[in-house]
Amino acid sequence: MKRWFGRIGICVLVFGVVAALISCGAVEGFTYNNAKEQFITWLLAQEVEEHAIGQYLGPVLAGDVVGSFNPIPLPGQEPENSGPLPERGWLFYVDEWPGSYYNHPGKIYVVSETGRVLFEKNTQGWPVVNGDKPESTNRPFREMISDNRMTIYNPSNIRAGLQLAEIPDLIPRFIRTGAVVVNGLIPTESLNTESSGIHVQMGKAMRDLLGTLNLVRSVTYPNNKPADVKAAIQYLVNSYSVNYIILYFNAHGGDKRMNIGGVSFSAVALRTWLEEFSNVEFILIFDTCHAGSWADFFGGLIDRPANLHMVIASTGADQGAYPDWDEAEGETDYNADADTWVEFTSDFLLMMAHYTSETFWPSVEALTNPAFNNNILKLFYLSFQAVKNEDLLLTARLNRQTPQIWYPE
């Protein structure tokens, strides 16, 4: 009997030591729920806009380094991190433009198991731990926003679609026109799933529109650096004598700059390309954060390249570009069952399908104001105006996103 009680005593002692080790340094009773409440109380004091969301990204360990990564840093912006954390804790993030492409504003907040704030930072990039994205963020935006274990603060009730829609077929309308469709993201970047999905849809739409596979070049990871984009343009010119190119970019962006394949690419560099390919006519389409800064840049040039005929930007110079939103702030997307992946591009493609149909193509050909000299400019203009004027973008109706268009008058 004594031996049996002795064994119990040893087990109790071992269990006590283990429990003590596990709880070492923690305030008794301070749990994740306490940390979550502390984070939300802090968030409410930050005066963020109503559409901001708060997310729990996971636990962090003593010695971990928390920081952020911005694919397109702002001028003078220096990377900051926590340094090695002195305690274990929990990592939280405020996404101030929920789901938007980067760069865009957010806040990082780390609470320790003792209730201390270990790290607090305003950021324009996505959070990283030891240089890597937290595992909880390696999935589509629609999954993150719908996971109430992760998105713990969502007062605007933002919801994203299930990404089941497929772009309808377009009727071929143009010859000797080429397209270069660029997905600038790499797999480790936020929104890679959405960008990959819209890249496939845009590529299909362009192949339909131009009636050929050969004249549409897909530029995507791992061969999606600026040099790869330029090589795709050169290929169309050399191999098929293309004299008109639609150049589409989906990427993380900043002020007159975007990140393509992990490399920064500027509006100045693109202007140089247009001048080098002076015998090719160009239409530029940007679906990036701060896309309007590209329209502003080219529209504001005094010595603008004469071969540039239109710039379409998914959003304003100081705004974000968003993945598909189906519900937010009590409003529902008008065509939630039809658009998918990325708000602007998806709706733009749907309107292209509408206007290239047998029923509505005559309205393209009949357009006289503005006085464009070819039908591809007319098609893009009407498609853009339909997206904007019919309020197809839920994010635009909520004043998050204002598409822009420029053309020489």
Structure keywords:
409 residues; alpha+beta; Rossmann fold; 8-stranded mixed β-sheet; 23% strand
What does this structure look like?
By secondary structure, the chain is an alpha+beta fold. The protein folds into two domains: 32-153, no CATH class; 177-406, Rossmann fold. 32% of the residues lie in helices and 23% in strands. It is built from eleven helices and 18 strands. It has helices spanning 2-22, 32-44, 141-146, 192-210, 226-240, 267-276, 292-299, 343-355, 361-365, 375-389, 394-397; strands at 53-60, 65-69, 81-84, 89-95, 106-112, 117-123, 126-129, 151-153, 177-183, 216-219, 244-254, 257-260, 263-266, 281-288, 308-313, 327-328, 331-332, 404-406. The strands form four sheets. Strands 9, 10, 11, 12, 13, 14, 15 and 18 form an eight-stranded mixed sheet that branches. A hairpin with a 2-residue loop joins β16 (327-328) and β17 (331-332). α8 packs across α10 (375-389). The longest helix is centred in the N-terminal third of the chain and has 21 residues, at 2-22. It is elongated, with a radius of gyration of 25 Å.
